[in-house]
Design a protein that fits this description.
single chain, five-stranded antiparallel sheet
Amino acid sequence: MKTVQLSDKGRVRQHNEDSVGVFTNKNGIVLAIVADGMGGHLAGDVASQMTISSFKKIWDETGGFDSPDSAEKWFGEHLELVNMMLFKHALNNPECQGMGTTFVGVICTDAFATICHIGDSRCYLHNESGFKLMTQDHSLVNELVRSGQITKEDAEHHPRKNVLLRALGTEQQVHFDVTSIGAEQSDILLLCSDGLSNKVSEEHMQSILNSEQQELLNKAETLVQLANENGGEDNISLVLVEYSPGSEKGDEAC
């Protein structure tokens, strides 16, 4: 299994409130996470970084999974713990009031992948069948699209595009979506913040991931570069996980 993680502050913002992490536990199972912090500098940083560091500690003590159900249950139990930790931190630290973070994570075993998300950070699957969005944004605009009130084209330029309906750490109770899929050799999972998905079309993402000439790290760098070339107004973060023999890990970009 090959993995690459990159996080870039983009061309406009002075600080990077995104955090990413790829961790392998004692059983050789990979956990990959992208968290897009919200609440302004310091608060956004704190929420996303606390999320990544907390899951790293938990993952170090986690063993194997005998089924997708067990992986889905693991996500639910530990998201509740991390959510409450973030919520209490904001209550006890006035400078962090209102902080929260999106969350998209995937547990990758040899047989299956379990995808969990909150907010508008996304997970895509690239395989022999094509390129598919595996998550649905928990955002106001996406709900308007789903209910037929606006079109997907309207959503691209909607003035309230960044309004989230769910986030990690903003409420006492956390609501998330989780699903599991079978894993095949050559499958690629792309986890990303909206700094990438808002700037790079799915067609371009698929084209880049299709390239046989580029290594996984080069593909990740090309995606970040394209997001910056298209404006780079937001932080840009991604993780690529490829189901293939061997290992490959990219360095996080500042």
